[in-house]
Amino acid sequence: TIHYWDYNSDQKKTILVVHGFRGTHHGLEYIIKLMPDYRFVVPDLPGFGASQPLKSVPHTIETYTDCIYNLIQSLDTKPDYILGHSMGTIIAARLVSQHPDIVKKAIFINPISANPSKGLGILKIFPGYVYHYAAGRYLPEKIGMWILSNKYLFLLGSATMTKTKDKALRKVIHWNHMEYMKRFGGRKSLLEAFESSNQSTIAQYKDDLHLPMLFIAGQKDDIASIKSQRALVAQLETAELVELENVGHIVHYEKPREAVAAVHEFLKK
Length: 269
Fold this sequence. Notes:
Order of helices and strands: EEHEHEHEHHHHHEHEHH
Helix content: 40-55%
Strand content: 5-15%
Distance between the termini: 36 Å
Mean pLDDT: 92
Shape: globular
Number of helices: 11
Number of strands: 7
């Protein structure tokens, strides 16, 4: 069963939100709190947060997309828009490429426009590969789970992603990562999600993306480079790109107000 949270349920317009790898619904609350005029439906993807891992199929972009599609079909009111972050942008892109009428517009925050493991990008994310593959597949399960759940390793990753110099904000971001990145269903489902998310990009679906789309990118994103965002958006007739300065892959934590301003402008059009 996929668990989801329903915010501002009395509002007329609905945005369905898909979180990123190792995220939960909590991370996008910084965006949601700034948009009280919209209803938000925010699931925890299977294997993350409160949602149990899938039993009979692997955890891939394809199966996650199916889960989101099924969730939408079960809702009393269908969403008007979809918003994804990081891995969630790939899922959202696949969904709207397969079902072009399922929502009116799509919003991608820190979109995965190109494979981060290609070219020089691999140097920046290589430690993450070693971490997930060693602990997720090659080490004894008990040791692997300890490593994958170690909050101090989350802190190291958080410090790498965080670009702000604001000490109070850095503290909040690190706390969130240490608290919520440990909420996953097991190392098998985690590794499956990691592998699939690193083999997939929005660009795979570009020929079938025709609805209005907003890309919100961080100019200092080490995972989803600003160059890849510009290159993909240039190929999409119905997409627009908003670039945010001095922020990387966690726009929803570091620059939620700027992101929300861009979303409001986009939805008003």
